[in-house]
């Protein structure tokens, strides 16, 4: 595979249209040579080529440096389709719709909480339901859940889970427009009724982190970040609601593809014209899951603030526990971008990728508008996470998109065989990282050795200019499902 | 013949389930999937539930069957160890009884969270015996 790639820049590679019959546009992969070699060990590059079969795809099928093998789309995949004539694909969003990250800052230095750190972690762990099969603290009626799906973060704020200003500091103000709960199945309602305000399992986590490096003082200042600072990162998604909505609509798309005779190399890429009944229905249902996920992270953040208040005996306001930002990693959005000098309305699929809008975009919250949008990159539990900032270059080259994390290199069963969970926990504790996990088996799957080096991934984004480094954090306390 | 084997996938996980008959391969696919979630040896057979699914073709019938079990597990807080197809046409309709008990996190350690069964690399074929292959999102 690697021989057919054309290198177009130090960290940019092209998969030519001729590589597979049916490709409508080339594939463009952002990766260093080392990351590219990793990516071609499995089927990730093949999947970049597969995505380029989507009817209405514009310019190219893109892959970010954390690319790895997914189902249908590669993880780290970005594809934009023409809004008028293109298609929308639930597989291009994934089962965990609006899996994403939010970051909460504090005015605290790590040294300020040294004596109470353990107590703080235990308090958070007690307040945040996690893992599979554990019931959440909130149970919603069908009607309340429909309201939540329509309103997003505003629903939570109205009920006392957070601050008014949190709304502005989330992507899309914590509410994607166009949500229609009547397009969501009863099953998705059932799966979600007691999961709002739960962390989940797998790669989801809640981390208390220390800011260890600042690369861009101006941006860090705007985002409220400084060296030695204590921050909290929450990585979670739309839980069973999103999983069920994707499951339901992949079935719908399968029928559309057959009816319209669309030829796709992978059934998981099933899609429908954006303006067809099925395409519109999926978008409206997806938006419900997007808003459910925003609300989920909002409620989790509220409980984090309460935990700090309880342990440190100070109000969250006086501790400066402001939201830095909340980003989506799995989503399809209607956006306008310049394509060959012409403004075009597109449906941008980001599957394991982050929006990275540059300075002066009206979609960046006012306090950050001159700087660009904050991009939150979670790493594995043993290394680091990053805050980056969106750029004009990302707007020009990748529809304003960049990487979303480290990306796996080792399968889950391999990681389980290789890593003893008890030893892993001890190793992390010897590095000064406290781990609280719902299941030891799940902990092994998520071992740092199963991931690429997040710093390498971030470096490629920084060097190629599709996001710029702002700050680096290391984990101090990890809560896992 | 083993009931199933685990397929390696970088981000997710899959299974290849075997059977002397297609019915047995479908049953073993459910057993294989549930073995990823928790150890069936720790599950007692205390309750049973009837499951009915319909689909457009044989491959999607397998996906529907497995997704139905994921849904039941998540919504009813139950774990299953035995899967018996009692009536089907091998293509579009399937009726089964699943046996298990209520989820008890003290006894049933959750090994993997399965979000859904995907269509990626989905395959049902007959070689020496029947096999059914699926990739899950975890």
What would CATH call the architecture of chain A?
Alpha-Beta Complex
Number of strands of chain B: 8
Number of domains of chain A: 1
Helix content of chain B: 25-40%
Number of helices of chain B: 2
The percent of residues in helical segments of chain A reads: 25-40%
Topology overview:
The complex is a heterodimer of chains A (481) and B (138).
Chain A: E1 6-9, E2 12-15, E3 27-30, H1 33-39, H2 44-51, E4 57-68, E5 75-82, E6 87-88, E7 100-104, H3 117-127, H4 142-151, H5 153-158, H6 164-168, H7 186-192, E8 205-214, H8 217-223, E9 230-236, H9 239-260, E10 272-273, H10 277-312, E11 323-328, E12 330-339, E13 342-351, E14 354-355, E15 374-377, E16 385-389, H11 392-397, E17 401-402, H12 412-418, H13 421-430, E18 434-437, H14 440-445, H15 454-464, E19 468-480
Helix pairs in contact in A: 3-10, 4-10, 7-9, 9-10
Chain B: E1 4-8, E2 13-19, H1 22-37, E3 47-54, H2 58-76, E4 78-88, E5 93-102, E6 116-117, E7 123-126, E8 130-137
Antiparallel strand pairs in B: 1-2, 2-8, 3-5, 4-5, 6-8, 7-8
């Amino acid at each position: 595979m690697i021989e057919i790639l054309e290198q177009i820049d130090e960290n940019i590679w092209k998969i030519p249209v001729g590589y597979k019959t049916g490709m409508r546009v080339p594939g463009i992969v952002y990766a260093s040579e080392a990351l590219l070699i990793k990516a071609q060990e499995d089927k990730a590059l093949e999947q970049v080529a597969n995505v380029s079969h989507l009817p209405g795809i514009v310019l190219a099928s893109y892959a970010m440096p954390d690319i790895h093998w997914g189902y249908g789309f590669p993880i780290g995949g970005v594809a934009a389709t023409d809004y008028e004539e293109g298609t929308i694909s639930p597989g291009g969003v994934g089962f965990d719709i609006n899996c994403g990250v939010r970051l909460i800052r504090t005015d605290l230095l790590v040294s300020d909480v040294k004596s109470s750190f353990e107590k703080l972690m235990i308090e958070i762990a007690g307040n945040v339901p996690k893992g599979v099969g554990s019931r959440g603290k909130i149970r919603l009626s069908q009607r309340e859940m429909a309201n939540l799906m329509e309103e997003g973060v505003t629903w939570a704020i109205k009920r006392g889970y957070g601050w008014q200003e949190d709304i502005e500091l989330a992507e899309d103000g914590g509410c994607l427009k166009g949500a229609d709960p009547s397009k969501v199945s009863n099953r998705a309602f059932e799966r979600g009724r007691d999961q709002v305000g739960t962390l989940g399992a797998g790669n989801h986590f809640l981390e208390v982190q220390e800011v260890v490096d600042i690369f861009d003082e101006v941006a860090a200042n705007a985002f409220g970040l400084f060296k030695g600072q204590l921050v909290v990162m929450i990585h979670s998604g739309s839980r069973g609601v999103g999983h069920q909505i994707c499951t339901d609509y992949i079935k719908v798309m399968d029928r559309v593809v057959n009816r319209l005779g669309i030829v796709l190399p992978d059934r998981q890429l099933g899609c429908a014209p954006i303006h067809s009944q099925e395409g519109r229905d999926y978008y409206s249902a997806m938006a419900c899951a997007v808003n459910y996920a925003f609300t989920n992270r909002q409620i989790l953040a509220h409980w984090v603030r309460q935990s700090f208040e309880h342990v440190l005996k100070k109000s969250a306001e006086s501790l400066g526990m402001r939201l830095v930002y909340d980003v989506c990693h799995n989503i399809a959005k209607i956006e306008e971008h310049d394509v060959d000098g012409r403004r075009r309305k597109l449906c941008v699929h980001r599957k394991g990728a982050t929006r990275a809008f540059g300075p002066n975009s009206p979609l960046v919250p006012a306090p950050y508008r001159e700087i660009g949008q904050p991009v939150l990159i979670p790493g594995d539990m043993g290394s680091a996470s990053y805050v980056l900032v969106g750029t004009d270059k990302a707007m020009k080259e990748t529809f304003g998109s960049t990487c979303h994390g480290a990306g796996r290199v080792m399968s889950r069963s391999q990681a389980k065989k290789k890593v003893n969970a008890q030893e892993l926990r001890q190793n992390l504790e010897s590095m000064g990282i406290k781990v609280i996990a719902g299941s030891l088996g799940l902990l092994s799957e998520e071992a740092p050795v199963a991931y690429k080096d997040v710093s390498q991934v971030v470096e490629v984004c920084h060097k190629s200019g599709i996001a710029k480094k702002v700050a680096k954090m290391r984990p101090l306390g990890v809560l896992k499902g | 013949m083993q009931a199933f084997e685990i397929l390696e996938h970088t981000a997710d996980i899959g299974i290849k389930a075997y059977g002397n008959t297609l019915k047995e391969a479908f049953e073993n696919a459910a057993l294989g999937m549930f073995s990823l979630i928790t150890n069936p040896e720790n599950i007692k057979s205390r309750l049973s539930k009837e499951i009915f699914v319909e689909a457009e073709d044989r491959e999607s019938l397998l996906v529907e069957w497995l997704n139905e079990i994921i849904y039941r597990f998540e919504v009813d807080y139950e774990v299953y160890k035995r899967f018996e197809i009692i009536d089907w046409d091998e293509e579009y309709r399937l009726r089964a009884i699943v046996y298990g008990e209520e989820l008890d996190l003290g006894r049933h350690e959750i090994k993997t969270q399965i979000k859904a069964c995907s269509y990626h690399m989905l395959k049902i074929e007959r070689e020496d015996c029947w096999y059914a292959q699926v990739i899950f999102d975890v």
